[in-house]
Amino acid sequence: VQLVESGGGLVQPGGSLRLSCVASGFTFSAYTMRWYRQAPGKERELVARISNTGGTTNYADSVKGRFTVTRNNAKNTMYLQMNSLKPEDTAVYSCYVELMGYWGKGTLVTISS
Question: In angstroms, rounded to a whole number, what is the distance separating the alpha carbons of residues 108 and 82?
């Protein structure tokens, strides 16, 4: 199993980023996926969750209305569209396979002027 995140970077407050998580080594379309983030000195936080078909999504209150999680099962890829970014969104963002317990290494998102 391999999960590779990409798309992080430095963005000004109010900006947008789209993160990707490319999965391999398992039947991606069979599993619910999650995005987590961990800011320096803070506990890991569940950001968003998407069912295996993409039909059900859930979000942390802190990102609701600003972030959108989607997936393309034909490409074995999950996305996180992040809009109206705030400095408090700064963190390492990682993807996770529910039930299997596998993690990607993460991608760093920094929101700063």
Answer: 13
* Residue 3 burial class via C-beta count within 10 angstroms: exposed 0-12, middle 13-18, buried 19 and up: buried
Q: Which tokens go with 67?
A: 């972030």
The H-or-E segment that residue 11 falls in is strand 9-11
CA–CA separation, 28 and 44 (whole Å)? 23
Interval 90-109: pLDDT, tens:
999 999 999 999 999 999 99
Residue 7 backbone class (left: φ over 0; alpha: ψ -120 to 50; beta: rest): left
Q: Which two tokens stand for residue 107?
A: 């991608």
pLDDT at 3: 98
- Which two tokens mark 51? 């069912």
